[in-house]
Write a structure and sequence with these properties.
Distance between the termini: 23 Å
Largest sheet: 5 strands, mixed
Number of helices: 7
Order of helices and strands: EHEHHHHHEEEEEEEEHE
Structural class: alpha+beta
Strand order of the largest sheet: 1-4-7-8-9
Shape: globular
Number of strands: 11
Strand content: 15-25%
Length: about 230
Amino acid sequence: MRFHIDKSMAALGIQHVVVGIARNVDPQTTLSDSFLKKQRKMEDWALRCDVDEVSSHPVIQGYKNLLQRVGRSVKRNPPTVPALIRNVQHRGSLPRINSVIDIYNVESLHSLLAIGGHDLDKVHGQIEFTVNKEEGTFLPILSKAKHVAKTDYVYRDTEGIMAWLDVRDGENYKFADETQNAVFIIQGNANTSVEMRLDALGRIQADLSECMPAMEFETQVIHAEEC
């Protein structure tokens, strides 16, 4: 699998993207007791926390700064973690979807990082991180198609947009019950170090390994194209 960070992203402060590839995953497997304990702890935190206070954290502020730089409303397109916290508080619990998604949702709450998760076998060709540069459309998971401005930042394969503004993942790349291989993408922002993002992938790897002993995991740090 090849990755490319366009210089348009480097201009927005995205110099490195951290990627994890997990092979032989099982979304329907039973989660470990230690992970379930961690999940309950993060759920309790999300239910009790002040979303506005979380939104002022430097990591979240970095995502807000990116949205504002490209002229997108933070209110209409909130960063991933505040949106997830509001969902938890609205429904009264952390969504349980499948073992793979549950694991990286918990890590997002823990690290405050936006983590993209996709079925690797649905990805075609190179993944490129770029400002879109032309008008387009994007189909988010369980939603209607959205207009993509030419100034919006995305990552895409050769057939379509996989993630838009680092706030929504694409329907055509989502995990299914039969998913066997996964790719996790942490694009980050100017306030997130490579080390911070690698640590997050390390925790995802450890949680997956506990309940999926046949899983193989590798990480990559992708460097931006020089201007």
